[in-house]
Design a protein that fits this description.
- The chain has 228 residues and is an alpha/beta fold.
- The protein has a domain at 28-62 and 105-204: Rossmann fold.
- Helices cover 38% and strands 23% of the residues.
- The protein has helices at residues 6-9, 44-53, 68-73, 93-101, 112-120, 137-143, 151-165, 183-199, 206-214; strands spanning 2-4, 25-32, 39-42, 58-60, 64-67, 76-81, 87-92, 105-108, 126-130, 173-175, 202-205, 222-223.
- The radius of gyration is 19 Å and the shape is globular.
- GO terms for molecular function: CARD domain binding.
- This is Guanylate kinase-like domain-containing protein.
Length: 228
């Protein structure tokens, strides 16, 4: 199936000859995800404070601390190295699946770049971007009062998030500034958004999907079949 990519559509503009450029399309594969998907909140500077406010069935998934040798024998991925030690903070795929088996959404503390390791394994996190602008910077401060980043750093971080989201091979959800005015309202918007994303068919870029199959990875979720 052909599907417009939202972020690419925004780049469609008139050519120098004042003719309208064609909107790009990409081929996508529908995948039905039945069990609760893990959740990734962005930007990271706000994610920790927001995660602490989320109710059940949302639970933060704390990484394990493992040695470098042990990480080579486990099935998962390294979040970050521990400075000065031969150890890393590590997330196992098994821990994510165990949380889903309990009908819970695990909330992941990671950068979007790390999420590619999940997608490679056929695990598709729900990605929510809490958009940060000059108009809502004070609300963001109320959400994360201990955040030591300057306003400029918060805005720059959000711009980097927006750029990195273009590499995600399926749709993410953006929480616009005008949809919340206080932390509790943001929690309500986020939990509602996660519920909506969970109920949707996930449309995966076919180029990514084919690459996974060619590399020997199998879907953990069921691709949707269509009858002619």
């Amino acid at each position: 199936m052909l599907c417009k990519r939202q972020e690419l559509m925004k780049l469609c503009a008139c050519s120098p000859e004042n003719t309208v450029a064609l909107c790009p399309y990409t081929v996508v594969q529908p995948i039905s995800v039945r069990r609760p998907r893990p959740v990734l909140l962005l930007p990271p500077m706000l994610a920790g404070a927001l995660t602490q406010r989320l109710p059940s069935p949302f639970h933060p998934l704390s990484p394990e601390v493992v040695s470098d040798d042990e990480s080579k024998r486990k099935s998962g991925f390294c979040l970050r190295k521990i400075p000065g030690q031969d150890k890393s903070e590590y997330i196992s795929f098994r821990a994510i699946e165990e949380m889903a088996a309990k009908n819970k959404h695990c909330v992941l503390d990671m950068e979007l770049l790390s999420a590619s390791a999940l997608v490679t394994e056929g695990i598709y996190p729900i990605v929510l971007h809490i958009k940060v602008t000059e108009a809502n910077i004070s609300q963001c401060r109320n959400l994360a009062p201990v955040c030591e980043a300057s306003d400029h750093e918060l805005l720059q971080c959000d711009r980097r998030v927006e750029e990195s989201l273009r590499t995600l091979p399926y749709a993410h959800r953006t929480v616009e500034p005008g949809t919340w005015t206080c932390p509790q309202q943001l929690v309500d918007v986020v939990t509602h958004g996660i519920s909506q994303e969970q109920s949707k068919i996930l449309w995966m870029e076919q180029s990514w999907d084919q690459g996974l199959l060619l590399s020997g990875h199998q879907h953990r979720e069921q691709p949707v079949s269509h009858r002619a």
